[in-house]
Specification:
Order of helices and strands: HHHHEEEHEEHH
Shape: elongated
Distance between the termini: 76 Å
Strand content: 5-15%
Number of strands: 5
Largest sheet: 3 strands, antiparallel
Number of helices: 7
């Protein structure tokens, strides 16, 4: 059964025995029409198009006459949603796969980087959150097991991958680093002076 049919059945069940209190209502036929369309599973935007009102006006009728709450009633399954790409998404060039049962999935949607999943499958265990997976050839789209290696920490990863490289600092960047170092040393001296007084 597809999403619209499931939603229509759920909405019909929610509206069973419902009759709005129309005392003081200026346009009771409109309210009854909105109720019948809502009971058929139409969304407020679709109802608004049919009756020539805005979706906000339809939602106001929902609230004023205490319609049953239809928000998130029988939501579409992931594969039924528009724009669903099989749980694969791209973020900052990295591929992420939706893995609801993964212990280290993201907070929103339980996504895990594909290169981490490939390495976990190769090692036969979950990676620790502190472990870093590196693409040997530098191509972050190449997630072949032969192109991946694991480092215990980001510090170890940077030590290996940046070895022999000279960063191209701008003059402004060098100046800001020098100022930050001076401020850190000054704070330490001030803290030591306070400790000696006390």
């Amino acid at each position: 059964m597809e999403h619209r049919q499931r939603r229509r059945l759920a909405c019909q069940k929610a509206f069973e025995g419902f009759s709005p209190n129309l005392t003081g209502c200026r346009n009771p036929s409109e309210v009854l029409l909105v109720a019948s369309l809502a009971a058929e599973g139409y969304f407020s935007g679709e109802i608004a198009e049919k009756i020539g009102k805005t979706p906000k006006a339809v939602q106001k009728i929902f609230r004023r006459y205490n319609f049953p709450r239809l928000h998130n009633r029988e939501p579409p399954r992931l594969e039924e949603r528009t724009g669903w790409k099989g749980g694969l998404k791209l973020a900052k060039g990295y591929q992420y796969l939706r893995c609801p049962q993964h212990p280290h999935g993201t907070k929103h949607g339980s996504y895990v980087a594909v290169h981490r999943l490939v390495m976990e499958q190769t090692l036969g265990r979950y990676l620790l959150p502190t472990e870093v997976v590196d693409h040997i050839d530098g191509n972050i789209q190449n997630n072949h097991p032969n192109n991946l290696r694991v480092f215990a920490s980001n510090a170890e990863h940077l030590r290996v991958t940046l070895a022999g490289r000279c960063p191209k600092w701008s003059e402004d960047g060098k100046r800001r680093i020098a100022e930050a170092v001076k401020q850190r040393h000054q704070r330490r001296r001030d803290d030591a002076a306070l400790a000696n007084r006390g």
